[in-house]
Amino acid sequence: MNLIGKAILITGASSGIGLDAVEQFTKAGASVIACGRSAVKLEAVKAHFPKTETIGCDIADEDDARELKEKVKALGGIDLLYNNAGAKYNAWATNHGSPDTLINAEREIQTNYLAVIRLNELFIPLLEKRAEPVIINTSSALAYVPSGAMPTYSASKAALHSYTVSLRLQLQKEKSRIKVYELMPPTVDTPFNIAANTPTLSASVVNEALIKALATNRFEIRPGRANLLYYLQRLLPDRALKIINP
User: Over the stretch 182-201, which tens digit does the pLDDT of each residue have?
Assistant: First the structure.
């Protein structure tokens, strides 16, 4: 698709992949609405990209999500919804009785999975009014091969992958114009990733792969080592598991 003149909402846009996406989609000619939890970080986004609309929002909060929809609607709607925001925590079964284990797991499920479903449900009626509507769900290569250090994060991304496939099938069956893409990055060189001694991919490479996929209707985007991991887990699943969990 031609992104010139298209309006895109990017969640988690104040840092990492989302912040780079603001830059990449702006360069491609799109009108960007950046959503994030940190007012300070959003001010920095606005300073660097003055034409970008910024909206403070915690997508895991239902009231915030509904307010986000109304604000986007007031701005004229969107052509693309880029569900990029995420939560990730390390968790260890040996932390018996630690309240953080369950609290963090709930946050991951709420942000990485349930919030995406809520936003899609809220924005699908707006997207249906556009000529070339798009939903982009950001899952992870860990949807294929889980990390022992991040069990709930891995599970939430596996759930999102399954949901994304189902959503695409449903919309195709209903002959909707909405196209559903899934971005499945490997470990990316951003503050979001805290794993040590792990090869990383730059956020710009991830978003460049996404934009190319939008132009060619390639619905599952696996940049860098994510594509290798996809095929490896199909052929040698034990080997793939050891690579993620050395």
Answer: 999 998 765 555 444 566 79
Is the four-CA dihedral 217, 210, 160, 231 of positive or negative sign? Answer: positive
231 noted as active-site residue: no
Q: Answer yes or no: are the C-beta atoms of 210 and 3 closer than 8 Å.
A: no
Measured from the Cβ of residue 233, the count of other Cβ atoms closer than 10 Å reads: 18
Contact 14, 34 (CB under 8 A): yes
Q: What are phi and psi of 189, to 5 degrees?
A: -75, 75
For residue 101, how far is the Cα from the chain centroid? 23
Note the helical H segments in 99-190: 99-109, 115-127, 151-173
CA 180 – CA 99 distance, rounded (Å)? 36
What's the pLDDT tens digit per position in 101-153?
889 999 999 999 999 999 999 999 999 999 999 999 999 999 999 999 999 99
Catalytic option among 144, 153, 163, 181: 153
pTM value surpassing 0.85: yes
Residues 6+ apart with CB under 8 A from 94: none
- Give the chain's domains with CATH numbers: 7-244 (3.40.50.720)
Nearest CA to 73 out of 149, 5, 159, 9 is that of: 9
CA angle (35 as vertex; 29, 41 as ends), nearest 5:
100
